[in-house]
């Protein structure tokens, strides 16, 4: 377990506990030391010093009295001198009493007390001895003064000597040794206390040194502890605070440095976890926001949010793209000014939406730059932040509408094709009968045929007159009409049969530029074209892009497609006004895995209504008998059904029409499918 | 033309057959008309024509079977097929079986048929 893994609380407790323990030890040592020292000082200063003073007074008084008693024994003293001695004794007694008074109340050791108890009666007995002596001396003096006999005086003196000696023996036998003993005890105790105080004093120096050292150590420890606490708490807390401030400012990538495992470490880890979690949540939010924004922006439809006042609150990329108005300029503007062509529809749908349901208008036709476009407009209610708004979705369905129309067209033609296949055989026989019979009719009134002449001669008929009659009554013309009409009908049937034909087996790779050129040659030599239209006067512009790969196709069919389109253009341009020379533009390019061929004329073009129906079977704008009404239908079927391509037409009335044929460049899959179905 | 060419025409629809026959007769051919394949086979055995012109779709034994039988018994006689424009596969099958040419119905100009007959006779 490393230092950093010990909890902060434990560290602080350990540090303060250590300090407290050291202080306690020092305190106890100091306490006992001071107690000892003060005890010694008290013993010496308060007890033994006065004791010894008192004892000294007593001792001095005792010595003085003892000496005085000895003085009193000498007979040389006069009365006055003796009187002085008495006074001295009395004074010394007072002195001794004073010493007694000082000493007695002071505390004594047991031994001392025993000695004192022994001393007190001895002392009192001795004092009484001395007092007796003084009385006897005074009595002696009085007797002497009264002139008592020398003998009695001598007796009296002897008495005094006896008395003095008794007192002296008592003093020396009891009082003095006891007093000395007590003094000695006191000295001894004082000496002991002194020695104690010396030891204590010496100890005191040590204690002082210890205390000073401890104080210094405490200061040092405090500083170190302060630094440690700063390091342990303040620094990481500061770092934590800096990190958290960063996080609070929104910088969620900030991380608090993490190298501890205590509370701060856990706090830092928690802060980091929090930041990480916030960061994750925020990134998730940002991701979600981007995702939603991307969804809205990548919608292939115009998405516009509007509020109750029809002011734009949301404007997706498609809206910006199709209007040319960027979102920052669109937001806050009324939708009517931004999408004027849809404002009426949006307004109408918005009224419906008030009930809380979505409303839509499908395939709204809008003319833009002369082109017809179709839009699905949908308005649905949106309640965001308690604001009643709506979302307008505008989808360009022009292409889809056209494809739908084409699919309807294809289905129509498929049914026609199926019908044609079944009908062709049944119709061909009657058509054959009509044409063949008409041909026989023509032939059998001709004078050129020997069989005719033979029969005519036999019945007396003049064939030349019959001929004349036929011409004058236009019978010959009627017969020709029958033949032509039947021939046309036969052609229609032939064209119709193309609907039910697929001829994948005859597919070959060919370059569309070559096919186009060959078709142009065919067109130039086409009987119908030469007969009805001045094909040589048509200005032909070839705009062939380079690098268009060969396309897998049934060449004769594609030739027929181009021939039909060129014929169609030639027919259309024959109506051109003077001054606008017919001009046919053939374009070839590769585009998005398709080879694209455009056949454009500068003829009268067509209205939208015509344009929508132009590939329908039997739909024709030409006069009766001019076309079969199937040319473009066959074109359509060959391109879409047989070659999985696309064909469409764009036209600006009075300016011309442009047919676009798209043939897929990668036919591998289609070919495989064809092989399977073949 | 010293000898008259003899044509067996097998066609189930009488009006159609009649108009073709009339034209070819006018052109100088001798025509034997049959309304179905069985009748055609019988006429063929009896008349031994120079060429056979036959429809493909007919009730009873079809044109295809007729071609098979004639190719088996008289491989030298050329056979011309008349058929509807819609029947591409039938045309191909007939040519495979040995028919020398197909003429598409409706015959908008019978001269086309006549030319085909001449071509076949020259080739034979």
What would the keywords be for this entry?
heterodimer; A: 678 residues; alpha+beta; 5-stranded antiparallel sheet; 5-stranded mixed sheet; 19 helices; B: 124 residues; alpha/beta; 5-stranded parallel sheet; 5 helices; globular
Describe the protein in words.
The complex is a heterodimer of chains A (678) and B (124). Chain A has helices spanning 8-73, 79-103, 110-145, 150-249, 263-298, 317-323, 327-330, 335-338, 340-353, 398-444, 450-459, 463-472, 475-497, 512-525, 527-532, 555-573, 608-613, 631-642, 668-677, and strands at 302-306, 312-315, 359-368, 371-384, 387-396, 508-510, 539-544, 551-553, 583-591, 594-601, 646-652, 656-664. Chain A starts with 7 loop residues before the first helix and ends with a helix. Chain A has a five-stranded antiparallel sheet with strand order 2-1-5-4-3, with helices on both faces. Chain A has a five-stranded mixed sheet with strand order 7-9-10-12-11. A two-stranded antiparallel sheet of chain A has the order 6-8. Mean pLDDT of chain A is 82; it is low at 669-678. Chain A is α+β, with helices and mostly antiparallel strands and 678 residues long. Chain A contains 19 helices and twelve strands. In chain A, α1 runs antiparallel to α4 (150-249), α4 (150-249) packs parallel to α5 (263-298) and α10 runs antiparallel to α13 (475-497). By secondary structure, chain B is an alpha/beta fold. Chain B has a five-stranded parallel sheet with strand order 2-1-3-4-5, with helices on both faces. In chain B, α3 (63-73) links the parallel β3 and β4. Chain B starts with 5 loop residues before the first strand and ends with a helix. The relative contact order of chain B is 0.18. Classes of the chains: A alpha+beta (678), B alpha/beta (124). The A-B interface holds A 420-421, 424-425, 428-429, 431-437, 439-440, 443-444, 449, 451, 483, 486-487, 490, 493-494, 497, 500-501 and B 13, 15-16, 19-20, 22-23, 25-26, 57, 84-88, 105-110.
